[in-house]
Amino acid sequence: MKIELRFFASVREQLGVGQESADVPATVTTVGELRQWLRQRGGAWEQALAEGRALRMAVDHAVARADTAVAEGCEVAFFPPVTGG
Fold this sequence. Notes:
Blueprint: E1 2-7, H1 9-15, E2 19-23, H2 31-39, H3 43-48, E3 56-59, E4 62-64, E5 75-79
Parallel strand pairs: 1-5
Antiparallel strand pairs: 1-2, 3-4, 3-5
């Protein structure tokens, strides 16, 4: 399944990439599984997307949880929590 990935702020800086198209295995069906699959790339990917790291995710511009489904052609974004003031 092909999906579009977007990375913002410190996540983008750590990975050195802002976006990419990825061919994801059929076994990846949720945002949490996608995050885990991307971490298997190792190095900066493992650190930037580490389990337990404060990280927000969105699917097609809607805030997502780890159990949110991903589908062919969707856009998944990863970004740090944002605070205002």
